[in-house]
Design a protein that fits this description.
Length: 284
């Protein structure tokens, strides 16, 4: 495996923290196993660069063997220039592929102007990643989502989706052929941003949705920032809450199956739902 290109080293304590946080996620959710072949999704943003570097560093000292292939998708955005990312991958000795798929035309055709493109763009990109993983013989796809992405998604689903859900650290595809993993899910965005600045990664801007200032995700990010200004441990507390779920204290009816096989209400002290409804409505 070729060594990474010489780049400025970030402060040791911050590098160790990112490595530690990634290691916790890998261990907690069994994200890496012997013989895994990872397709590392490289968007050209700070998070995917950091993930690639940290995983490559891990390869040198991990007690298991795994392979990495970086994949970047040219989605046909206006003004797109992926040359800096490709040059970085070559200089770093990272095995990689670049795919050219014009998802931009599809998204702009299907989504009205002024609306956020993120959801459809993400679904199209995920389909391309799955197919690429199959073609390249990779059994896992590594995405660069971090702690703050997960918290924002939780709030988006809560406020606008009517469900309690977020980005899982490990997700098996519907057909069972691939496993999506998020090694950075415990890492704070601010630490990844510092990492990117110290390493001087050649960041590629996302011009597709950058002008959509009303995107709900941006609102959630702003809300978390405002709350954390008053409560400095807010994000870490929310992260802990996502790993400390108490289903019996929620409202999902699937957790409360109907009583079966009861002989009478008198014997079980159970009142039939229809009777409860009549009582609530003031009926006999």
């Amino acid at each position: 495996m070729a060594p990474l290109a010489d780049t400025p080293r970030m402060p040791v304590h911050l590098e160790r923290r990112l490595t530690r946080d990634m290691g916790r996620a890998l261990n907690d959710f069994r994200l890496l196993e012997e013989g895994d072949r990872l397709l590392v999704a490289m968007s050209g943003g700070k998070d995917s660069y950091a993930m690639c570097v940290l995983l490559r560093d891990l390869q040198k000292r991990a007690p298991i063997r795994f392979e990495i292939t970086a994949l970047h998708i040219d989605q046909g955005h206006p003004g797109y220039d992926g040359a800096p990312l490709e040059a970085w991958l070559r200089a770093s000795g990272v095995p990689h592929r670049v795919l050219h798929e014009d998802t931009y035309s599809i998204v702009t055709d299907k989504i009205p102007e002024g609306k956020t493109y993120c959801s459809l763009c993400s679904r199209l990109r995920r389909g391309i990643l799955y197919q690429a993983a199959t073609d390249l013989g990779c059994n896992k796809i590594a995405l660069g989502h971090h702690r703050d992405d997960a918290l924002e998604t939780l709030l988006l689903n809560l406020f606008f989706g009517g469900k309690l859900a977020t980005m899982p650290p490990r997700l098996v595809s519907d057909d069972g052929r691939h496993v999506v993993i998020r090694p950075l899910i415990y890492c704070a965005e601010e630490h990844l941003a510092a990492f990117a600045a110290e390493r001087a990664f050649p960041i590629l801007p996302c011009n597709l949705c950058g002008s959509q200032s009303e995107a709900q995700r941006k609102q959630m990010k702003a809300l978390l920032g405002q709350l954390e200004a008053k409560h400095p441990t807010l994000r870490q507390t929310m992260l802990a809450a996502m790993g400390n779920v108490n289903p019996s204290h929620l409202f999902d009816k699937k957790l409360f199956p109907a009583h079966e096989g009861t002989s009478s209400a008198a014997e079980t002290d159970v009142i039939a739902p229809s009777s409860l409804l009549k009582m609530a409505l003031g009926g006999p």
